[in-house]
Amino acid sequence: MSGLCKILIVDDELLVRQGIKHHLNWEQHGFQIVGEASNGKEALEMIGQLSPDIIITDIVMPVMDGEEFVRILKTHYPRIEVIVLSSYGEFHYVRSTFQSGVADYILKPRLETSELLQVLQITARKIPGLNYTPQSRSGELSLDQLLERLLAGYEPEDQAQLLKFFPHRSFVLAGADLSGVSGDPHSYMAGLASSLKSWLEESSVPAVPKAIAAESKQLLMLINVPQENEWQVFQLVKEFAAEKSSGMPKLVWAVSSGFADLLKLESVYREEWLRLLSYRFYFPDHSCLRASELPAVPEVPEFDMKQFLADLRKEQYHEVFHRLREYVGMAASNYRVPPFEFKSFLGNAIFNMTVVMTEGNERMKELDQVKYDYFKAIDEAKSVSEAVTWMNGFLEMAEQLAEAHTPLPGEANMRRLLEYIDEHYSEPLSLGTLSKHFHFNPSYLSSYFSTHNAEGFSEYLNKIRIRKATELLSASTLTISEISARVGYGDHSYFTKVFKKQTGASPSQYRRDQYGKRAEL
Fold it and tell me: Is this entry keyworded Transport (predicted)?
């Protein structure tokens, strides 16, 4: 047996995968990149279909890291060779992968194409039955390679070479997201792509469809068509999607607007096609989405959370709950907002409501106990209506508890204390300063605070300060030292210690996690 040595790339960083994939014409050197995955679990699902000879894998990845991946891989596929990518600080993980039988490792900070090529050639020669020879093949890239490079943002050296494959003036991107479908999408993706291609070619529309390798669970097709036939292409894909929806109801289909410049392929893919896929959250009954078919986006003003909480503290429950319900209803129609942001708003509203309504009120603590159930349910909601239903469920519960609540003696003073702390948390507050302001004896105030509030003074003040710090870490570019000072901590180290104790992460890690969630959108 002889032929190209097949390679699978496994790394959670898209730029690393694209860098390896497109910085060299691998087929010219006897290799073929057959796929890429963002973690070990995803890679294991692909191996049966792709049958790679060599896997290049990162070590630190979400879902399933490289160490676990290599161990499972070598148990079930001992013939596949593995090359590990790592950073300097990860060598203790690399050492454990050698025990599982990896072929070699390369340090990421010094990763060079020439070094990787040399390691791959050495590894390929060891594979029994492959008979690998680093023969030099034609330097001209295939159409598949040219399109993959365009999708990754690399301009072709000769655009005329690319255009010779397409006779018409206009292009449309069409396809589906298969991540919500049960089972392994790779097992039927090729068949689905072939069916769509035949569907288009057998129609009366002069369309030239060409599948492009995109993210691992995306079926993406570039359709070359006369400009006057763009609408008909959408109708054809819509009909195809409707036919497939009975067997695959969770498939999300999208068709882009037409574009004449093939160099715009990447921007149309990232800025329009991927965004259309996310709109399924707002339009769960649509089997196929196209920008021109969607309703106008309503103007939704920013919600005044500060005023909302201030009115909530005044126990204007009926008014504030009605106001929030109305706003959520409006926001649910603004499909341009990524689902993550909409869900974050609902979760933030629940969190702040819980803090305000349980301040100094033991009988409202039930809200605090159930809020995490609502956080989870909203986060897992598959549609905007499902998320809104959970939000309304929380509001109903909060309203019922509020109506049943009758203030106990001393609660009014306690509320005044908490409101003062919320407004002056950034100042050097202490029981002494509170005592002077409210004309209490300091020792009495300490006992009074503990009696009428579930938390002591210091614990409550830290909770308010850390909550404000999380908001600044998520929404501002201030340095961590600046945030520490802004929320009332003079000692940066103490701030970091308190933050990690309350959130489970350091301030810098928390900020990276928030940026990471946004980047996934």
Answer: no
User: Per-residue pLDDT tens for 21-58?
Assistant: 877 778 778 888 888 888 999 899 888 888 899 999 98
128: left (phi over 0), alpha (psi -120 to 50) or beta: beta
Q: How far apart are CA 336 and CA 347, in angstroms?
A: 19
Both structure tokens of 22: 């497109």
Sheet of 5-10: strand order equals 31-37, 5-10, 54-58, 81-86, 104-107
Total length of the chain: 521
Nearest to 396 by CA among 374, 369, 363: 374
Which value, to the nearest 10 degrees, does the dihedral of the CA atoms of residues 461, 464, 468, 473 take?
80
Separation between Cα atoms, residue 102 and residue 53, nearest integer Å:
13
252 beta partners: 177
- Pair 177, 189: CB distance under 8 Å: no
| Residue that has been written with the tokens 């009696």 in this structure | 451
Please list, in sequence order, all residues whose beta carbon lies within 8 angstroms of the beta carbon of residue 437, skipping any fewer than 6 positions away. 420
Whether this prediction's pTM lies above 0.90 is answered by no
Q: What is the pLDDT of residues 363-411, one digit of tens each?
A: 677 888 888 899 999 999 999 999 999 999 999 988 888 776 545 456 6
